Amino acid sequence: MRVIQEFTQEEIRVSIFSWNNKYIIKYEFGPMEQTFKVSEMEVLEESDLGIFWKGDFFQTVKQRFEEMGKTFRAQLENL
Question: Is 38 exposed, middle or buried (0-12, 13-18, 19+ CB in 10 A)?
């Protein structure tokens, strides 16, 4: 697995890897993570991957983390 890029955006850690003819885009926030796989055939240049940490897609990732966090905290209260 090759690391393409790693950075933090709005407190969310974004890691991009290349592995098995796929780009793996991983978002981490606290104890939670979301991972997406994109075929290298779908992307002309690595710089085109920027659409995954901008605009509506990234806003949806943030919203999903909020939902995940609420669910996680509720479950922890039931321990």
Answer: middle
Is residue 79 very low, low, confident or very high in pLDDT (cuts 50, 70, 90)?
confident
- This prediction has a pTM of 0.92
The pLDDT of 38-53, averaged and rounded, is: 94
Per-domain residue ranges of the chain: 2-77
Work out whether strand 2-9 and strand 12-19 pair parallel, antiparallel, or are unpaired.
Answer: antiparallel
Place of tokens 């780009």: 23
**Sheet harboring 12-19: ordered strands across?**
2-9, 12-19, 22-29, 32-39
